[in-house]
Amino acid sequence: MEGILTMSQKEVDRLKVITEVNDDKLTVEEASEVLGICPRQTYRILKRIKEEGSKGVIHRLRGKKSNRGYPEDLKKEVIKLYRKNYPDYGPTLFSEMLIKYHSISVDHETIRKWLRQKAITTSMRKKRPHRKQRERKSCFGQLLQFDGSTHDWFEGRGAECCLMNCVDDATGKVYLRFGISENTEDAMLTMWEYVNKYGIPRSLYTDRHSVYYAEGKLTDFGRAMKELNVEIIYAKSPQAKGRVERFNRTLQDRLLKALRREGISNIAEANKYLQDEFLKEFNERFAVSSSQADVHRDVKGIKLHEIFCYKKVRQLRNDYTINLNGGYVQLLKGSAPLPRPKQNVTVSLWLDGTMHISFNEQELNYNILKSKPSTMEPKKQIPSKEHPWRKMNQKLKNDKQRNLFAAALG
Q: Kind of pairing, strands 344-350 and 355-359?
């Protein structure tokens, strides 16, 4: 009696086929082809079944440690490091930290299994509804997904801020910059840096945040993109711009922990770290093949400081002043001719804080007034004694007096 044997379905199927060989219903070669093993392995299994019975089909390492398993001391060290230094890391990121900082190479799925064996929970991705995946664009620079991610990036060490995220649709290459919030200035500064580094993208895919979209008119950001001949495509839902949203989730895990390791607690240090280290490592890890053609437009000859700015149009008053933000600006004579009253001038506030006023693409001199300009009283015109108007009035006066005198004598 062999007692009770516990077999996997694979082993049950294997025993059935080997029994057919013993009953001379199959040859060893036919059985090997059915089982997907070589004839020599089939002969070994036949021999074990003759010697041990049905249990000869069970794998010899059942219940034993794998010959390729990790040492128990290594497992204990990894668990100890996780609990002490990386308690909120996922298995994948933790495995990368082990290689980078501890020279320990363990597959992330093995780490996941070890953590669960020790009843240490790991994050589980929520099941999401199936959506048809949109094909990537074929060229680098053909479509740039743009978004801001407001988050407690410094985990209380500094103020909450926003990470501006640019993701190329074809390559998955990212460009990042921290700002105070998702405002017009930080959005334009991010695009300015991106354009300086890679060139002008063909189109931009973003949401309907007030920085980018306004019903019936262009925002300053939208106007800057129009001047660069960049088409803006507005998404109608977060799912529509899934690639940049997924990167935001990844960054809220990886970048947040990187800033913690580096002890960074302000925007200036964070932006320096992005440029010096993080962006290169992140793009090497997540960007796809960069063999695609680069279709960014060249920025040579384009004055970006005159595009990435705030612009307003104001009408010139009769006294050659314009009203601006509740104050008044006096235009002055200079090398460029002044426009006529009632004509429009363009007021540009550059991101460095300086103001420039232009007309027909020529810059005008100006002076900011401290108070409202006084309204000048028109001068009274006093006609001379010989003016026909005086003579006519004198004649009317004399005629009136004669009529009154004649009526009195009457």
A: antiparallel
**Structure confidence by residue, pLDDT tens digits, 178-217:** 999 999 999 999 999 999 999 999 999 999 999 999 988 8
Torsion, Cα of 35, 41, 47, 53 (10° steps)? -40
- Residue 254's contacts (CB-CB under 8 Å, 6 or more residues apart) are 93, 282
Q: What are the b/e assignments for 338-356, b being 16+ CB within 10 Å?
A: bbeeeeebbbbbeeeeeeb
10 Å Cβ neighbour count for 160? Answer: 12
| Superfamily classification of domain 144-286 | Ribonuclease H-like superfamily/Ribonuclease H (3.30.420.10)
Task: Count Cβ atoms within 10 A of the Cβ of residue 67 and give its class: 0-12 exposed, 13-18 middle, 19 or more buried.
Answer: exposed
Cβ neighbour number for residue 377 with a 10 Å cutoff:
6
CA distances 244 to 164, 196, 206, 359, Å, are 11, 21, 9, 40
Those residues with Cβ within 8 angstroms of residue 99's Cβ, 6 or more apart along the chain or in another chain: 105
pLDDT, tens digit, 9 for 90 and up, residues 349-406: 999 999 999 999 899 999 999 888 776 555 566 767 676 766 676 666 676 666 766 6
Euclidean distance between CA atoms 130 and 293, whole angstroms: 31
36, exposed or middle or buried, with CB in 10 Å at 0-12, 13-18, 19+?
exposed
Whether the CB-CB separation of 148 and 209 falls below 8 Å is answered with yes
Name the residue ranges covered by the structural domains of the chain.
9-57, 72-117, 144-286, 308-369
Q: Which residues of the chain have a pLDDT value below 70?
A: 1-5, 61, 63, 122-134, 238-241, 290, 375-381, 383, 385, 387, 389-391, 393-397, 399-402, 404-410
- Integer Cα distance of 205 and 187 in angstroms: 13
